[in-house]
Amino acid sequence: MKKDTYIFGIETSCDETAAAIVKNGIEIIASVVSSQIESHKRFGGVVPEIASRHHVEQIITVLNEALEQAGLTFKDMDAIAVTKGPGLVGALLIGVNAAKAIAFAHNLPLIGVHHIAGHIYANRLLEEMKFPLLSLVVSGGHTELVYMEKHGSFKVIGETRDDAAGEAYDKVARTLNLPYPGGPHIDRLAAKGQDAYALPRVRLEEGSYDFSFSGLKSAVINTVHNAEQRGEVIVPENLAASFQASVVEVLTEKTVRAAKEYNVKQVLLSGGVAANKGLRASLETAFSSVKEVQLIIPPLSLCTDNAAMIAAAGTILFEQGKRDGMEMNGHPGLDIEAF
Ligand code: KG4
Ligand code: ZN
């Protein structure tokens, strides 16, 4: 009988300090996420310096809590997986150095994981992956359509040329004086409003799977400014609904078209914006009529940053024999196709 594999995952690329233990790449044994959102709120976004300090303060507690939750020790682990990029370099380094220290002290293999690979592999904690597959990755820093032919192979077939979807959500939220992170607030308002403002749908050239959200963001800002100048009142619920309708329509349309063109068996939704109710509903409706494609949408806890997803992706790399050495560094611009 095959021995069980326990991978310890660490994630510190942005504003969550997280640790988790995943068994055989599919079962969460422990998962701890310490969020810094409260500390960044008053600045309206993540302040890199503050993020690094929080990670330093939290990391040991978070690591110990994951072991406690599982009732296991580092001696029970087969490897340590850690996000090595992309992300804020100072934040990444806290996780990378913690992972190195544990690997050295307990003589464990060290595995550097790409943050977005982690977001995609969060889906494997729900359902076995069937290839070829397509993942729509929508987070605060990324908006990508990633094609996977097999485990550990990532091809970016479309990406944003300017703002990420989450970034656009956060900027629009700021324009409407909503707190950081703005995505969930816009989502909540949108559910109460009507798509009453004419905002653009940016599709780019015919056939392209790339995205662009900065024009849409500017259109929202202009709508607010123009209304102010004319002394008109903006209905925030309606503006949120119109903005969300534009984002969701373009994301859904391109995902469905790519899924058909690439003949994929599954479509996996990943990243923080995957928590968006409008996007989830729109994809579910669109794929309900594409019978040959299975749509997987993770629960909210697996959409936003966590370490279980890093351990899940790390398990595949571990099984493929991929290892990092003690010279491993944080890579703010790490490329998913090459890592
Ligand atoms: O993946 P994530 O936790 O961190 C990054 O790797 O970037 O994503 C965070 C992003 C933020 O921009 C946040 O506003 C957005 O995800 N977000 C949402 C929702 N929940 C979180 N955006 C739209 N609707 C939501 N419900
Ligand atoms: Zn993320």
Topology, element by element:
Layout: E1 6-11, E2 16-23, E3 27-35, H1 37-41, H2 48-70, E4 79-85, H3 89-106, E5 110-114, H4 115-121, E6 133-138, E7 143-148, E8 155-159, H5 165-175, H6 183-192, H7 214-230, H8 236-261, E9 266-270, H9 277-288, E10 294-296, H10 300-303, H11 308-319
Parallel strand pairs: 1-4, 4-5, 6-9, 9-10
Antiparallel strand pairs: 1-2, 2-3, 6-7, 7-8
The structure holds 5'-O-[(R)-(carboxyoxy)(hydroxy)phosphoryl]adenosine and zinc ion.
Residues 14, 139-141, 166, 169-170, 181-184, 187, 271-273, 275-276, 304-305 line the site of 5'-O-[(R)-(carboxyoxy)(hydroxy)phosphoryl]adenosine (KG4).
Summarize the structure.
By secondary structure, this protein is of the alpha/beta class.
Could you characterize what this model shows?
The chain is an alpha/beta fold and 339 residues long. Helices cover 43% and strands 18% of the residues. The chain folds into 2 domains: 6-121 and 303-319, 2-Layer Sandwich (Nucleotidyltransferase, domain 5); 129-297, 2-Layer Sandwich (Nucleotidyltransferase, domain 5). The protein has a 5-stranded mixed beta sheet, sandwiched between helices. A 5-stranded mixed beta sheet has the order 8-7-6-9-10. α8 packs parallel to α9. The two termini are 32 Å apart. The mean pLDDT is 96. The structure holds 5'-O-[(R)-(carboxyoxy)(hydroxy)phosphoryl]adenosine (KG4) and zinc ion (ZN).
